[in-house]
Amino acid sequence: MKLTHEHRDYRGHLAMLSANVIFGLFSPVSKDLLASGVMSSYALTLFRMFGAAAIFWIASAFLPREHVKPRDMGLLFFASLFGILMNQGFFIAGLSMTSPIDASVVTTTVPIITMILAAFVLQEPITGKKVSGIFIGAFGALMLIMNSRGDTTGGGNHFLGDLVCLLGELSFAIYLVVFKKLVSRYSAVTVMKWMFVYASICSVPFCYNDVTRIDYSRFTPETYAQLAYIVVFATFVAYLLIPIGQQRLRPTVVSMYTYVQPIIASLVAVAVGQDHFGWPKAIAALLVFVGVYVVTSSKSKAQMDAEARARLPRRS
Predict the structure, then answer these.
(1) Quick one: which of 259, 261, 257 has its CA closest to 244?
(2) Which among 82, 96, 21 has a CA at the least distance from the CA of 285?
(3) Helices (H), strands (E): how many in the chain?
(4) Residue 1 binned pLDDT confidence (cut-offs 50, 70, 90)
(5) Domain encompassing residue 54
(6) I need a surface site. Which of 17, 27, 56, 273 has the fewest CB within 10 A?
(7) Spatial contact of 245 and 257, defined as CB atoms under 8 Å apart
(8) Which residues, including other chains, have CB under 8 Å from residue 294's CB and lie 6 or more apart?
(9) How many domains does the chain have?
């Protein structure tokens, strides 16, 4: 079987796998931090935005400077709204009202939403193979979630929390599809340093008051460690990896890696003694990766167009 470009480009797959492993750890870490009561979801969002913006700008100082066109600066503003501000703001706010398991279930909608949006915006074909891969992966992810014995409690209205989480996932799907070409024009650091600056500015009116009410005397070494993980890894590193995947893979393939997050959450639960590992989890994890492979091997619009051109009779 001839390998597609996406099969050969392991950097894109490695980037998305790594980013979603980090995101898989983000949910339990942030849930534990919010449950401690030292800060609200809004305060945590502002810490993430400003912290990541600072790190990206420091990193950019050691790299060649890239000129961003004025029109693209405007597009980066809207990319930051969908890819960062609404995505993470809604997700953290929703997570504070619902359980990590419910939030994980909501993430399984991302590839389905992305596939539909890509069909309308990028004219990517909805093939039987792609649909099969998405639902194989979704079934595996749901198997993992439903077999979990982790925390099922929430901090408030579960339905409202789930709905807010869904809005965050919808905004991320829009970002993956609509801004793929924009992200491909610049380096990951250049894209993200501007996106996080915009996201930080937009966060201030909503989050500033919550930050001023924080009692820093309540911070423990664990609080600082959790904040460090959230800002450095779950924000800076993860968002550095996402554009690398976007530049090399189709939006639907990128979104399929969200199914890795429940695997990581399940492994964490096993590691801390909240759950046990058995055949159902092994089969579920296998289904997730089979689903990713099937979607990756499905034909893109470019491949289908090339095949259509090849079938046309040649002029003599």
Answers:
(1) 257
(2) 21
(3) 17, 0
(4) very low
(5) 5-298
(6) 273
(7) yes
(8) 129, 130, 132, 133, 136
(9) 1
Residue 189 token pair: 């650091």
Establish if 307 belongs to a structural domain: no
The whole-angstrom separation of Cα 183 and Cα 67 is: 14
The verdict on residue 304 lying in a domain is no
Is residue 84 within 8 Å of 152, Cβ to Cβ? Answer: no
13 alpha carbon, distance to own chain's centre:
14
Tens digits of residue pLDDT in 45-81: 899 999 999 999 999 999 999 999 999 999 999 999 9
288 domain-assigned? yes
Could you tell me the two tokens for 7?
A: 């099969």
* Tokens representing residue 13 in the block: 């797959």
Q: Global pTM?
A: 0.79
Q: For the chain, what's the residue count?
A: 316
The answer to whether the beta carbons of residues 239 and 52 sit under 8 Å apart is yes
Inside any domain, residue 9: yes
Question: In terms of pLDDT, which residue wins out, 228 or 289?
Answer: 228
**Cβ-based neighbours of 128, under 8 Å, separated by 6 or more:** none
For 141-170, the pLDDT digits (tens) are 777 667 655 555 555 566 787 788 888 888
110 and 255 Cβ atoms separated by less than 8 Å = yes
Angle at the Cα of 116 (from 14 to 127), degrees rounded to 5? 80
Displacement of CA 263 from its chain's centroid (Å): 14
In which residue are the tokens 């994890």 written?
Answer: 285
